[in-house]
Amino acid sequence: MRHRADFRQLFELQPVPSWLLDDSGRTLLANAQARALLAGIDPRVDLPPDPWQLLSLLSPKDRVRLRGALSETGPPVPVRLDELWLEGPGHGRLPLDALVRRFDPGRSGAHRGPGVLLQLLERQAPPSLELPRDPLMSETVFLNSNDAIVVTDAQGRLRRVNPAFERLTGFSIDSWQGRFAELLQPARAGEGELEPTILAVLGREGRWSGEARLRTADASERLVRLSLTALADADGCAQGYMAIIGDLTESRRASDEILRLATTDSLTGLPNRALFQDRLNQSVLLAQREQQTFALLFADLDHFKEVNDTLGHAVGDQLLIVIGRRLREAVRDMDTVARLGGDEFVMLLPNISRSHALDLAERLVSQLNEPIALEGMPDYRAQVSVGLVMFPDDGDSAEALLRHADQAMYAAKRAGRNQLQAYTPELGQHMRQTFSQHQELRAAIELGQLEVHWQPKFRLSDMAVIGAEALLRWRHPRLGLLCCCDFLRVAEQHQLLATIDSWVLRTTLQQLETWAGQGRWPADWKLALNQSASDLRQPHWLEQLQQLLERPGLNPAWLELELPEAAWSHPAPELQERLRQCRELGVSLLIDDFGTGYASLSCLRQLPVSGVKIDACFVQGMEQYESDRVLVEILCQLVRRLGLGLLAEGIETEAQRELLLQMGCPHGQGYLLSPALPAAEFASRFLPPA
Question: What angle is formed at CA 501 by the lines to CA 495 and CA 503, rounded to 5 degrees?
């Protein structure tokens, strides 16, 4: 019965004049459009109108065509009669088309038995572009649509549902007795009740569309796109609603997965750089609007490369996962922990004071130092350097905050690693100066601004020159002549040291070759040259040294390589081998700045050391500090007893020279005789004439 009422309602709402006839030609149904048409043409027509009455209003030719189509039991396929003209009193000529087709309404439950459907279509120009509106086509679409379709009465109770609705929800027309709205929930939590919103829009506009969650028979939910239309009769009275439902569940799940992959670090499951950057931008906007503060922590694992190189990348990944989890556990639920990449992590701490942020960061460093069970190392203790910045004190933009946090983190590494460093304006100024100097130093190498200066070495007893030390200088276009101590730290930080030292080695030996070729370099003089342990480990360093020493007129015995004391403290086997190879070439090896590092005395006995240079800080403190005087005296006795060469640096006064002579130190260098000089000036003052 319900299906029959639904069909009558749909038939009544057809937008064109329509009749449904039985096989005898008797009118079963005539919709409002049919009644209005005949009543408008001939007011004498009684209701319900019979389509046979149309014949009296048609031209003779059209009358024959329509009678022929209606007299048959109905053609198996639709028949279209074009250009029928109705001529009614006071109405004028009305051009129409007729559509006649066989119709079996049994599926829709309208009545029993087949019949014939007649529809009149008002002609709109041009005829070839006009398409008929077919209720049977609508029924076919309803039954076969992939989208679920629901028709309700005015109270929202189900009147009809199509098969797609039953497949989507598991509910049939009989298994769900409630209202359709009871199956719906807002698409997102916290949006409020959905039904009042829908009814308000339907009342104003007659239709509503949006997303919702649709309950199913198994108590699960599907995310759907819902389009609702209010249904009314010819008089505008509400008859019910029609809903078209598209299932968005799988497509939304796929898009959510794509979004997750795009915003989540695949290894740790933490937000990645893109998502963190978005949250940081939002935090800046919120804090500016609400006059709040927040903290940003930038953490970098110390010695992580050693884990990868020693235990393997799989174990390194395991360590990153554990670190990510510990960071997440160390902060509040409202905080964001993200992995930027590699071994870099960041933490966003909204609405927190500086003191609380510092306390949290200190606890974080401590917690990360707790043992971690790694494959191959069950008691590994991670170390982390952390930089901290506060908004708005340390930056008023996301870009500035992240940059300053990164700078503070690197300051923590330079200060010894495994600690927290808060950003300060002085730190920022230092970083800018370092960056500028780094860029200028790269240019200096290419532009020829680096120079080798020569400082003479002399016998303390008679001040006779016995050789020289080659020292690097930078003739800066703005700052003037810079000592190597002013820029070598930057060179080391930015991996320029090997390039610079290679240039110094080549330039110095080429100059020595020139003087030797002129006969100006005495055969008993020594040339000291600074190199670092990292230089000696370079793959082609020894090959370069051999090639230079093979040049005509150069004697390897003239060359003394000075390495800082730290390089001699427990040197790796490959460095020991390289030192041995240097000695085989005939090159002497000196410990530079002796007394300032951590070299054990055993290196004087076990390693191929030729001599020792006492650091200038002890020499210059002898006159004022007894401890420095005693230390220098002990060093002189020790080195002399071991039979090694000995030289004191930084001699500036006659009193220092006399003290060193009394202690048994034979050689020295310093301003007492001469500072380091450009090659031409050194040659004119200290080298014999050609």
Answer: 110
Q: How many angstroms separate the CA atoms of 258 and 497, rounded?
A: 45
* Dihedral over Cα of 550, 551, 553, 555: its sign: negative
Cβ-in-10-Å burial (0-12, 13-18, 19+) of 505 comes to buried
Strands 559-564 and 344-350: unpaired
What single-letter amino acid sits at 596?
Answer: T
pLDDT in tens, 32-83: 777 777 665 554 444 445 565 666 667 677 777 777 776 665 555 566 676 6
**For 250-267, what is each residue's pLDDT tens digit?**
888 887 777 777 889 989
DSSP string, 634-659: HHHHHHHHTT-EEEE----SHHHHHH
Q: What is the mean pLDDT of residues 165-171?
A: 93
Q: Do strands 611-614 and 645-648 pair parallel, antiparallel, or not at all (unpaired)?
A: parallel
What distance in Å separates the CA atoms of residue 652 and residue 671, rounded to the nearest whole number?
5
Confidence check: pLDDT of 108 > 50: no
Q: If pLDDT is split at 50, 70 and 90, which confidence band does 27 have?
A: confident
Residue 679, beta-bridge partner list: none
User: How far is Cα 578 from Cα 584, in angstroms, rounded to an integer?
Assistant: 10
Distances (CA, A) of 492 to 475, 500, 505, 599, 674: 19, 10, 17, 21, 28
Find the helix or strand (DSSP H, E) in which 80 lies.
Answer: strand 79-88
Q: Taking 70 as the threshold, does the pLDDT of residue 88 lie above it?
A: no
- Residue 648 scores a pLDDT above 50: yes
Domains and CATH numbers, the chain: 1-122 (3.30.450.20), 142-252 (3.30.450.20), 269-423 (3.30.70.270), 444-686 (3.20.20.450)
Residue 138 has pLDDT above 60, yes or no: yes
Residues 6 or more apart whose Cβ sits within 8 Å of residue 441: 474, 487, 490, 491, 494, 496
What residue spans of 292-421 are helical by DSSP H? Answer: 304-311, 313-330, 354-368, 398-414
DSSP string, 541-604: HHHHHHHHHTSTT--GGGEEEEEEGGGGSS--HHHHHHHHHHHHTT-EEEEEEETSS---THHH
Residue 525 φ/ψ, nearest 5 degrees: -80, 155
Beta strands in 154-292 (DSSP E): 158-161, 184-186, 207-215, 221-232, 238-247
User: C-alpha distances in angstroms, 26 versus 53, 63, 105?
Assistant: 12, 18, 16
Are the C-beta atoms of 465 and 527 separated by less than 8 Å?
Answer: no
Q: What is the pLDDT of residue 43?
A: 47
Q: How far apart are CA 401 and CA 423, in angstroms?
A: 10
By CB atoms closer than 10 A (0-12, 13-18, 19+), residue 407 is: buried
| C-alpha–C-alpha distance, residues 621 and 84, integer Å | 123
Q: In the numeric block, which tokens belong to residue 104?
A: 């079996």
Identify the CA nearest to 487 among candidates 453, 436, 425: 436
Percentage of the residues of the chain whose pLDDT score is greater than 90: 50
| Secondary structure of 422-453 in HEC code, one letter for each residue | ECCHHHHHHHHHHHHHHHHHHHHHHHCCEEEE
- Residue-wise pLDDT for 441-478, tens only, equals 989 988 999 999 999 999 999 999 999 999 999 999 99
Mean pLDDT lowest among 3-17, 94-108, 409-423, 639-653: 94-108
Mean pLDDT of 118-145: 61
Q: What is the mean pLDDT of the chain?
A: 84
The span from the CA of 360 to the CA of 327, in Å, is: 11
Average of per-residue pLDDT across 639-656: 92
User: How far is it, in rounded angstroms, from Cα 460 to Cα 668?
Assistant: 6
Sign of torsion, CA 320 326 330 336? positive
CA dist., res. 17 & res. 524, Å (int): 124
